[in-house]
Amino acid sequence: MKKIEVKDMKISKNTTLEELSKIYFDSGGFTSKKVGVAKKVMEKMFEEKECIKILSFPAAIISTGTRGIIKDLIKEKKFDLVMTTCGTLDHDFARIYEKYLHGSFDADDKKLHQEKVHRLGNIFIPMEAYGEIIEEKLQPILKEIYDSGRKELATYELVWEIGKRLKDENSIIYWSYKNKIPLIIPGITDGAFGLQLTIFMQTHKDFRVDVFKDEQFLVDKLFSAGKTGALMIGGGISKHHVIWWNQFKGGLDYAVYITTAPEWDGSLSGAKIKEGISWGKVRENASFVTVEGEATIILPLIIGPFL
Fold first, then answer.
1. The CATH number of the domain where 164 resides is what?
2. Burial class (CB in 10 A: 0-12, 13-18, 19+), 143
3. Domains identified in the chain, total number
4. Considering the domain boundaries, does residue 180 fall inside one?
5. CA–centroid distance for 303 within its chain
6. Is 0.85 surpassed by the pTM of this model?
């Protein structure tokens, strides 16, 4: 056993995120050490020029200020590919036009319903700032895309077509288009965007969003990949789509997973990265770590030094 001394933390008001990640690594425990390890894994991954870098996350964090970090990661081209959920499009698009508000986990949900306010954790989303504004702004964009002759699109192509028509540099959709970073949404029907697509298709029968075009893109991108790495925030379909496709090229070489889910229920969200080794979704000699914690706190500590 290699003997490494546990060092006491010493921080001040002048401590940088870069310095803090090293302090965490040297502290020896408990989650702080994992945050420090995660930063080192990310550092190795970013240094690999030929490594395909994948970012995955669920929609909920896009309702919060963490949207800004995700946007900057795409703006600065830190990742080559993004896996996420339909709600990411919902929240990112809606917040271009309307404001989300600070709320409370302890709010009276019956009262909020009567006041036409949706609650997402401790974020308040006025009804007019979600479904209504998405329908108002998205339907004309879909018509414009259709009239341009684009009638059969992968989800990432749809995102690019929408991003092309947006002018907001705070938008994830905009920067996905601007930097041609594919934003793949395997569950595209599960949200307000999915509803608007369904409504549009009622009167435009030859308009299609083809998820199998996304899958073919992943086949072409990952099967021939040398090395791959992923930062996975939360579980569900976003995480699974990353690790599922990576098993066919021998597994991820680098992986950082941030989760609040417990392992003992057998869920994919609770499964630690090391479980993926048994499936071939992560290489046996991969650099990886699972960090238990809430992403709006953990993510800035891990990724901040790279922005």
1. 3.40.910.10
2. middle
3. 1
4. yes
5. 13
6. yes
pLDDT tens-place string over residues 231-247: 999 999 999 999 999 99
CB-CB contact of 87 with 188 (8 Å): no
Which one of the listed residues 75, 227, 239, 281 is annotated catalytic? Answer: 281
| Residue 281 falls in the annotated catalytic set | yes
State in Å, rounded, how far the first CA of the chain is from the last one: 35
Cis before 30 (ω within 30): yes
Q: Helix H segments across 57-130? A: 67-75, 86-97, 109-114
Cα atoms in the Cβ-side hemisphere of radius 13 Å centred on 31 = 15
- Structural tokens at position 222: 């990952």
| 28-82 residue pLDDT tens | 889 999 999 999 999 999 999 999 999 999 999 999 999 999 999 999 999 999 9
- Name the nearest CA neighbour of 252 among 215, 221, 287, 302: 287
Sequence-separated (6 or more) residues with CB below 8 Å from residue 56:
82, 83, 84, 230, 231, 232, 233, 238, 239, 241, 242
Chain position carrying tokens 């504004």: 133
The domain of 63 spans 40-97+152-306
Give 133's contacts (C-beta < 8 A, 6+ positions apart): 94, 97, 98
Looking at the domain assignment, is residue 265 inside a domain?
A: yes
